[in-house]
Design goal:
The protein is an alpha+beta fold. The relative contact order is 0.17. It is 33% helix and 14% strand. β3 and β4 form a beta hairpin.
C-alpha cells in the first residue's frame, strides 16, 4: 500500500536513506522495484507519519515487516524489538558477509530483524551477488 508523503518529507527520507532500503540496505536499482515508505512503528500502534517514524524500505522488507515491531532472536529464542532505522545505527546491529550478498546479525536486534524481514531471501541474495560481481559495494559496510 502506498502512502501520500508531502514532497519535502519524501525528499528528506530519500536523502537520509540514500535510495537504499533502510533495513536491508539494498539499492532500489538492485531490487528492481521502487522503495516504499514504511512506518517504523505502524499507525495501528500509534506511529505517526513524521520523519522520525518513517523510512524507505524495499517491497519485500516492507511486506515481511507488516505491522511488526518485534521479532524472535533465532539464537536465544527471546522476543526483541526490531531495528529502528531512525534511532539506531545499522552497523551496530548488522554486517555484510565477506562476499557482500548476505547480511549477518551482530545483536539480538539484528538477528531478529533479519529473520522477521527475511532479509537474506532467495530473491535478493542472488540479485546482490550479481551486483557485487559487477563492482557494487554494499553500503554501510
Amino acid at each position: 500500500m502506498s502512502i501520500y508523503l508531502p514532497t519535502e518529507l519524501r525528499l528528506q527520507l530519500e536523502q537520509a536513506d540514500d535510495h537504499c532500503c533502510a533495513y536491508c540496505q539494498t539499492l532500489q536499482a538492485n531490487s528492481g522495484q521502487r522503495l516504499v515508505p514504511d512506518h517504523i512503528v505502524p499507525e495501528s500502534q500509534g506511529g505517526q507519519r513524521i520523519f522520525e517514524n518513517l523510512c524507505f524500505a524495499c517491497r519485500l522488507c516492507n511486506e515481511y515487516k507488516g505491522a511488526k515491531t518485534t521479532g524472535i532472536d533465532p539464537q536465544t529464542g527471546e522476543t526483541t524489538a526490531l531495528f529502528h532505522p531512525r534511532q539506531q545505527n545499522w552497523t551496530d546491529h548488522f554486517a555484510w558477509e565477506e562476499n557482500g550478498s548476505r547480511i549477518i546479525g551482530l545483536t539480538a536486534v539484528g538477528r531478529a530483524t533479519i529473520t522477521t524481514l527475511n532479509m537474506n531471501n532467495d530473491v535478493i541474495v542472488p540479485a546482490r551477488q550479481r551486483w557485487v560481481t559487477a563492482g557494487w559495494h554494499p553500503p554501510k559496510s
